[in-house]
Design a protein that fits this description.
It is a single chain. The chain has helices at about 50-60, 90, 95-105, 115-120, 165-170, 170-175, 180-195, 225-230, 240-250, and strands spanning about 10-15, 20-25, 40, 65-70, 75, 80, 110-115, 130-135, 140-145, 145-150, 160, 165, 200-205, 220. By secondary structure, the chain is α/β, with parallel strands linked by helices. The protein has 9 helices and 14 strands. The radius of gyration is 18 Å and the shape is globular. The model is unreliable at about 1-5 (pLDDT under 50). The protein starts with 11 loop residues before the first strand and ends in a 7-residue tail after the last helix. The protein has 2 domains: about 5-115 and about 230-250, 2-Layer Sandwich (Nucleotidyltransferase, domain 5); about 125-225, ATPase, nucleotide binding domain (Nucleotidyltransferase, domain 5, 2-Layer Sandwich), CATH 3.30.420.40.
Length: about 260
């Protein structure tokens, strides 16, 4: 990497943890990638030690960086994981992932839910903006005038006949019922979210967003899956400083 080729300012290592893949890149202060994304399959089983070891391998070929942004597929509080539906909540509950990576990589970290990170990469900062990701499961994030709303793990809420959003429109459902039926389900979910959230805009990302084959309603659009990485630059905006200060002192919820 040629440092003269990118704008001055801190370089951010952006990590996107998913149920299927682990991805990382280095971002310039503008948010532009200065290293091509590196990725590996998520370990199976995806226990914390195995995932951390895999992340260190993903990061190894990348260039220098000054800070770390982490998108995690579940509920997080400050440095700690609360839920990890696609990695194993029992193994991950209370695991201080960002602290562990900070110790091993020697740089300060910030961590948010992965859908929230992707949302930060695509929102306009105007009105009430909703973001969902279609991948291993369904990620969800909500933003009010550019600021993240409290995270709701909507993917684990029932949507149809007792099935959660993850079960109904996640990748396993796509493989089971086929693209035609899956698209009908996603179209219904968009309608449910319009009623539930009353959003101004809805952005749909994730690896399976490209499988949508129907005309999207006004105010709904698909976005690049790269936002799961590029959104990492915005975790360090001063606007979000209070969010991370507040998270640092929050205790883990009772189980």
């Amino acid at each position: 990497m040629n440092d003269a080729a990118h704008p001055s300012g801190p370089l951010t290592l952006a990590i996107d943890i998913g149920g299927s893949h682990l991805k990382a890149s280095v971002l310039a202060a503008t948010g532009r990638m200065v290293e091509q994304p590196n990725r590996v399959d998520t370990p199976k089983p995806a226990k914390p030690d195995a995932v951390v070891a895999a992340l260190l391998e993903v990061v190894k070929p990348l260039g220098a960086f000054d800070r770390i942004s982490i998108g995690f597929p579940g509920v997080v509080r400050g440095a700690r994981v609360i839920t990890a539906p696609h990695l194993g909540t029992d193994d991950w509950y209370g695991f201080a992932l960002s602290d562990v990576l900070a110790e091993k990589l020697g740089k300060p970290p910030r961590m948010l839910n992965d859908a929230m990170v992707q949302g930060l990469g695509v929102i306009s900062g105007r009105g009430l903006e909703c973001v969902i990701t279609l991948g291993t499961g369904m990620g969800f994030a909500l933003f009010d005038r550019g600021y993240p709303a409290p995270h709701l793990e909507l993917s684990q809420h029932p949507v149809h006949n007792g099935m959660s959003y993850d079960q109904w429109i996640g990748n396993a459902a796509l493989q089971k019922v086929g693209a035609k039926s899956w698209n009908k389900r996603v179209r219904k979910v968009i309608g449910v979210l319009a009623t539930l959230v009353n959003y101004d805009t809805l952005a749909i990302g994730g690896g399976n967003a490209k499988r949508l084959d129907f005309a999207l309603p006004i105010g709904v659009r698909t976005v690049s899956n790269e936002a799961g990485i590029t959104g990492g630059i915005r975790l360090w905006e001063p606007l979000l400083d209070p969010l991370f200060v507040a998270n640092e002192v929050m205790a883990l919820p009772m189980r």
